Amino acid sequence: MKMLIGGSLEDKENKLNVTNPYDNSIIDTVPLGSLQDTKRAILAAYDAKKVMESLSSRRISQLLYDIYQELSGKLDEFARLMTLETGKPIRDSKVEMTRSLDTILLSAEESKRIYGETVPVDAGLAGEDAIGFTIRIPVGVVSAITPFNYPVNLALHKIAPAIAAKNTVVFKPSSQAPLTAMKLAELMDSHLPDGAVNCLTGKGELIGDEMVKSNLVDKVSFTGSVATGLSIAEKASMKKLTLELGGNDPLIVLEDADIDDAVNAAVKGAYSISGQVCIAVKRIILDNSVADEFIEKLVGSTRKLRMGDPLDDKTDIGPLIDVNAALNVEKVVNDALGNGAELLCGGKRDGAFYAPTVLDRVKPDMEIVRDETFGPVAPIIRVDGSREAFSVANDTRYGLQAGVFTSSIENVKNAVKTIEAGTVLINKSTFRTDNMPFGGFKMSGLGKEGVKYAVEDMTRVKLVIL
Ligand code: NAP
Fold it and tell me: Does this model's pTM top 0.85?
């Protein structure tokens, strides 16, 4: 596939291979973009600002509806390519594509709801004779950088609100899974003014670095790991910044929980997309009184999951994004086992596949739960009572989501007050709709996405005084 700069598709002699993690075959190549290419793409976005700003909200909304219409006829084609490049089970790729449509639709709607507010300036001494109101104007050029795990919907959570707010975009998808996102950028470009959406491929350290540092860029919106997010925060200077980073989400099961519901949530939360989800369940904190029943049911459900060809509709668990990712999971599981954790099922690697794994007797200081383990592992930490459960839940540098299973309103109130996370879920885990404010506390990030909230962050407030 080709890069997209100023409305033209461009190739390069030097290329990167895109590999199918299921069978290691090369699916396609993408251009290895240079610093010069990045500067040209940013300039194209900068030059397109005036055109985008001159369009009415009605027109912008219509363009987003047109994109929605065209994409809705191509969901299966996009889902198949997504599965080929990520190893994500086809069922999950189809869900992502349906959600992607939602994100575009929400953006088309939101583009007509970008309001300012009246300011009662006559309440102040100097304002007796004045009238004040604010308007929301586009920030300008938005740099959008995304990870491999939700290549289309996470791109859309940046590009669609940016367009809704009349900005222009320079977009860089992950080198590990760029193809579906490039197809999306091409489709969007065919409806939008030249340069409104540009798409670069190549090395993150080179292209991403310039996309963050350039003086022509007004906002950086990044989703990815904490390490890359921190390096971006250091370089972004005075630009507006949204960082959607990693998580280490706890699922807490208290003594009065519905155990079957909690087990179902744990299976979905810990193993979907082989655990490569920012809001995956990464720690299961069990009250000792329910631990044995929960664990027996969790192991039973885990053993039923089918690993295999991600293009097969019946597959639950596909490969991880590459062998290195699976080796990393193997390393932290082995570390936990070496330090006293107990393996109840799984624990086996085969190339890029890692079997869904339940580990009991995990201690809060083990590497597997100190950092974000991006793999299909359910590490169990046993505790006594809600106080200890919430304290263990908060003992992490992350704070994306937390799920609490209980039937007591007192426990719910304590959880809402005590837990340090961007979202507290009651009797649920791993939850996202595309219109909710999504984003974490602590090292999990800065700012919120979710269409309305992203639009807010992709506009500036200008005050007018008459
Ligand atoms: P990553 O390694 O941080 O890469 C993310 C993106 O950053 C890629 O496009 C990468 O390009 C680019 N990049 C690399 N170095 C860069 C630099 N120096 N400056 C600017 N950009 C640079 O993350 P990943 O492994 O793809 O994704 C997994 C992580 O994303 C996990 O931690 C997960 O929790 C997090 N995540 C968070 C959310 C959320 O909403 N909070 C959602 C999904 C995933 P290259 O691919 O070319 O290196």
Answer: yes
